[in-house]
Specification:
Rossmann fold
């Protein structure tokens, strides 16, 4: 549904006699509609997707947020990292179906993105191509499109009676984006995402559901409720006001700071919200990503329950970032190794990698799991109790390009003895 259609629906309902009699308070009406939409959305997501319990809340608030994203200065991207057959395509189809004017694409170019972004929620499946070197312009556009005011200017040729000329066309690229891939996201784009990990579901009552989203009565009802609530909130600017006064609250809360603004017009409801957000462990980019969802959670009366979920996701993200940084180093190490189809002892590989990284904690157990995470093992066997692997060097060279690291020409590894009986210390 476009913004114009959304506006017409809202205005028609707002002007009706039924609305005036039943709900003379627009703010209360909006909250009730969004609250009903939220819990119905939780039901819909549980029907079609098998996720970690906390993921349903994040996705539901994000979807509702797409209908109000223009009230925010920034809006986080939603990103699913998953292996094959784990349900990521179904998740993207459902989310784009439920989101504001959603459109799902299996591949995307820079020109398609900036011509489609305005007034849409964009879903990008199989988003591996975004990390390729030749997609630098697309990555730059994505890295800026999550912030209000991001624009792209292009020239086009026009013909006149006497001569040809050029005119400038401007595109607004700020829009909600949901993405999914297998290999992971580059660091800069990943910093703009709330990352969720999908596992393959064993629940046949979910995996065998046919994706008849356009005929689902609950989905139709959800869209009616969320459009009405979002229209009223957007018109009264209640959400934007809560966002814009946050910095003033910080200035008045922190000691030894002076503020030229005042919160005298801020309601107690706003102050209670600010206090709860201030007491979280989130700051910097993590707070920027979740702040918009905090605002929505507060409006439907779910903030206290949602804050621990956000803190858990952020803590997992920090731990994953540390692990991912080491995984990238391992990927670079394998991509520069001499290509061969022979079995290589994991102990030998671990020893060489450990010397490069100068990290005492690296051991064969971590190295073997890292190879599995990166899906770089073609074959594996055990000889006299020791693991050996045949590596997929081609895949390593392809994956490392996602991080703008050019593979070095393979040096021939140093000659070593075959004595690998000594285990590395953990």
């Amino acid at each position: 549904m476009s913004s114009e259609d959304m506006k017409k629906v809202g205005e028609t309902w707002e002007q009706s006699e039924e609305y005036k009699l039943l709900h003379p308070n627009p703010e209360l009406e909006a909250k009730e509609e969004l609250k009903k939409a939220y819990w119905l959305l939780i039901k819909i997501l549980n029907k079609y997707l098998d996720l970690k319990p906390e993921y349903y809340d994040i996705i539901a608030l994000w979807i509702i947020g797409t209908y109000l994203h223009k009230q925010f200065v920034t809006f986080p991207y939603l990103y699913f990292n998953a292996m094959k057959n784990s349900g990521k395509s179904r998740a993207l189809k459902l989310i784009t179906c439920l989101s504001y004017n959603g459109e799902l694409m299996n591949s995307i170019s820079e020109s398609v993105l900036f011509r489609t972004a305005e007034d849409h929620t964009i879903g990008i499946d199989e988003a591996e191509s975004i990390g390729k070197k030749e997609k630098g312009a697309l990555r730059e556009l994505l890295n800026s499109a999550y912030k209000q005011g991001a624009k792209v200017k292009r020239t086009f040729k026009v013909k006149g009676k006497e001569r040809e000329g050029y005119q400038i066309e401007e595109f607004n690229v700020f829009c909600p984006v949901v993405m999914a891939n297998i290999w992971g996201m580059d660091e800069v784009t990943g910093d703009r995402c709330i990352t969720l990990i999908l596992d393959k579901s064993p629940k046949k009552e979910i995996t065998r559901m046919i994706e008849l989203f356009d005929f689902d009565e609950d989905i139709k009802k959800f869209k009616e409720w969320v459009v009405l609530g979002a229209f009223i909130f957007a018109k009264t600017l209640l959400i934007r006001d809560k966002v814009l006064k946050w910095n003033a609250y910080i200035k008045e809360t922190l000691p030894n700071t002076t503020s030229t603004t005042t919160l005298h017009n801020t309601t107690k409801h706003h102050l209670d919200f600010y206090k709860k957000v201030w007491d979280t462990s989130l700051d910097g980019r993590h707070l920027e990503l979740f702040f918009r969802l905090f605002v929505l959670a507060d409006e439907i009366g779910y903030l206290s329950e949602f804050i621990p979920i956000a803190e858990q996701i952020v803590q997992e993200k920090k731990e994953d970032d540390i692990m991912e940084a080491k995984d990238v180093s391992l990927l670079e190490f394998i991509s520069t190794y001499e290509i061969n189809e022979d079995y290589i002892p994991i102990l030998k590989l671990t020893r060489e990698f450990k010397q490069n990284e100068e990290e005492e904690w690296i051991n064969t157990k971590w190295f073997g799991r890292a190879l599995k995470r990166l899906n770089l093992t073609k074959k594996k066997r055990r000889v006299k109790g020791k693991a050996e692997v045949i590596l997929d060097f081609k895949k390593a060279k392809e994956k490392i390009k996602m991080f703008d690291i050019e593979p070095i020409v393979e040096p021939k590894p140093k000659e070593e003895t075959n004595n690998y009986v000594e285990e590395l210390k953990p």
